[in-house]
Design a protein that fits this description.
CATH class: Mainly Beta
Strand order of the largest sheet: 1-32-33-34-35
Number of helices: 5
Structural class: mainly beta
Strand content: 35-45%
Largest sheet: 5 strands, mixed
CATH topology: Methanol Dehydrogenase, Chain A
Radius of gyration: 23 Å
Shape: globular
CATH architecture: 8 Propeller
Oligomer: single chain
Helix content: under 10%
């Protein structure tokens, strides 16, 4: 069929306009670098490469936050835990669950597209610690996310159509205990992802993919092989089942060109069959994003018996150290200690408890090593001991916010201890559970009605200027704004705002389910919004037997709030 010349011209013009429109909405490396300084979009996990979860927005403030109302909600059609970090760009919100990805109109909540992700049945049986997903990343018109069966995909941000799909190379299979639940971090065109599953006795790793094509570029193992540096810190061949998962997203310093990532516990939990420091588990590591080359490491809990993952996202800031500004990396660690490291070298600057700790009575600032107490020494010798914090940690995976205005960290902490005993180690088989069951544990409380706190913490001392107790620990991350508001969620479903200066509760809204998610705030057409997911799930809610959560119904929902404008 012959096409008229005028129609051909009009078609070409429209095609060019479409290309220009897609190009204009693409997220470039420069867009990602600027994310922390912009208010209209939320492009990077942690609200900027420094992962401070701080917003310069102040239209919602202490005087008007009580007028905050939901303007829409969108069902994610999922009964598992809702832990996703919402990504927002050009009036569209992208959110994930373990088995779906959704693009939603940011102002109305109306769906634009939704993609389901199916898994083999064995996938859900193997994932050890919560059937969840914590989000994706935008880059050059693609929404990139990982799936629980160790596949990373890129979807067209406009349509949801799959652009590329890459399976993580061997041995990263569900059968070997690997799973991907974290959000990718795109740096310079490289999509960096981690893995979960140390409880199944694999060697953990972090790896990079070409964000444009999906090509696998590099892999950095967090547990060294025989003959590699650090292998000498593993007794005999215990590094073969070493653990060291990397299941929470890291951060990036563009000036130093370093990616900071946390690594998890060694495997098995029982330390008596893997003597030594067990590098590079329970560590904060700095890598080159193009190659995965290790630049420095700091280990928080050598020979960890207690599952004290160091996976929490390292937060970057400039603090005054000895009267001079210094770039640092901070981590509120599951061990109960708050670490401050030099961003360029990893040298320890400060380490102080922010919760109840008795396995160590401090950290030696010269050596960086813990000063072990009889509790730790008894645990590795096989004696029955009482330990604070429990395996859930002084904090778990939930993220911390840092305000450059107040110079404080805002964190949801856990106040739970345990009894602990490690029996004689048995022969361990890779791919089999190596966590609970290899040690004997019983949860204990100082007060069963106070299982956690929301705290404002000085990063250099670990001391709180205020703290709010909760009957159940909060598993939600925090968000802090220029107007000194702290937003967070409660396991019983309340989404709340607090005064960052004194901890006073200023606003609360009851959502449909318990909250485990990551609030973000953004601006469109001069109006400020707050977006968060609600939906109970995860390890604590499913296994802790917390009586406060018995009546909390599951069901993931995406919420967006704004000030009542009538």
């Amino acid at each position: 069929m012959k096409i008229k010349k005028s129609v051909q011209i009009n078609f070409l013009l429209s095609l060019m306009m479409g290309v220009l429109a897609v190009g204009a909405s693409a997220q470039t490396t420069q867009d990602l670098l600027n994310d922390g300084n912009t208010s209209g979009d939320v492009l990077v996990y942690g609200m900027g490469y420094n992962a401070q979860r701080f917003s310069p927005l102040n239209k919602i403030n202490k005087s008007n936050v009580k007028k905050l109302v939901p303007i829409w909600s969108y069902s994610m059609n999922d009964m598992r835990g809702a832990e996703s970090f919402p990504i927002i760009h050009d009036g569209v919100i992208y959110a994930t669950t373990h088995n779906s990805t959704s693009a939603v109109d940011a102002l109305t909540g109306k769906p634009i597209w939704r993609i389901s992700h199916d898994y083999p049945p064995e996938t859900l049986r193997v994932v050890c610690c919560g059937i969840v997903n914590r989000g994706g990343a935008l880059y050059e018109g693609k929404f990139i996310r990982s799936l629980m069966n160790n596949v990373t995909i890129a979807l067209d941000a406009k349509t949801g159509k799959e652009i590329w799909r890459t399976a993580s190379p061997a041995p990263a299979t569900i059968e070997n205990g690997y799973a991907m639940t974290g959000a990718p971090l795109v740096v310079g065109g490289v999509a960096i992802v981690g893995v979960a599953g140390a409880e199944y006795g694999h060697r953990g790793f972090i790896e990079g993919y070409d964000a444009k094509t999906g090509q696998h570029l590099w892999r950095h193992y967090t547990v060294p092989a025989a003959g590699e540096k650090g292998a000498e810190t593993w007794d005999k061949d215990s590094n073969v089942t070493g653990g060291g998962s990397s299941w929470v997203t890291g951060s990036y310093d563009p000036e130093l060109d370093l990616v900071y990532w946390g690594t998890g516990n060694p495997s098995p939990w029982n330390p008596r069959g893997r003597k030594g420091d067990n590098l590079y588990t329970n560590s904060i590591i700095a890598l080159k994003p193009k190659t995965g080359e290790l630049v420095w490491h700091y280990q928080t809990s050598p020979n960890d018996p207690f599952d004290y993952d160091a996976v929490q996202t390292p937060i970057q800031a400039t603090l005054k150290i000895n009267g001079k500004p210094q770039k640092v990396v901070m981590q509120a660690n599951r061990s109960g200690f708050l670490y401050v490291l030099d961003a360029a070298t990893g040298k320890l600057i400060a380490a102080n408890p922010f919760e109840k700790v008795n396995w160590a009575d401090g950290i030696d600032l010269k050596t960086g090593r813990p000063n072990y107490t009889d509790v730790f020494n008894g645990a590795v010798a096989g004696r029955n001991v009482t330990v604070w914090p429990s395996t859930s940690g002084g904090i778990n995976w939930q993220h911390v916010a840092f305000s450059p205005v107040t110079q404080k960290l805002y964190m949801n902490t856990l106040h739970i201890g345990m009894t602990y005993q490690a029996p004689e180690p048995e022969q361990f088989t890779p791919g089999k559970p190596s966590g609970p069951g290899t040690v004997k544990r019983t949860t204990i409380f100082d007060d069963p009605n106070v299982r956690g706190h929301l705290k404002a913490v000085d990063p250099l001392t670990g001391k709180s200027s205020w703290e709010v107790p909760f009957k159940s620990p909060n598993w939600s991350s925090t968000l802090v704004t220029q107007s000194n508001l702290v937003f967070t969620g409660v396991m019983t479903g309340e989404f709340q705002a607090y005064d960052a200066n004194n901890g006073k509760l200023l606003w609360s809204f009851q959502t449909n389910s318990g909250m485990l998610s990551q609030p973000v705030t953004w601006e469109k057409n001069g109006r400020q919004y707050v977006t968060v997911l609600s939906g109970i799930g995860g390890v604590y809610a499913l296994r802790a037997g917390d009586p406060n959560l018995e009546k909390v119904a599951p069901g993931a929902t995406l919420w967006t709030f704004a000030l009542f404008d009538k």
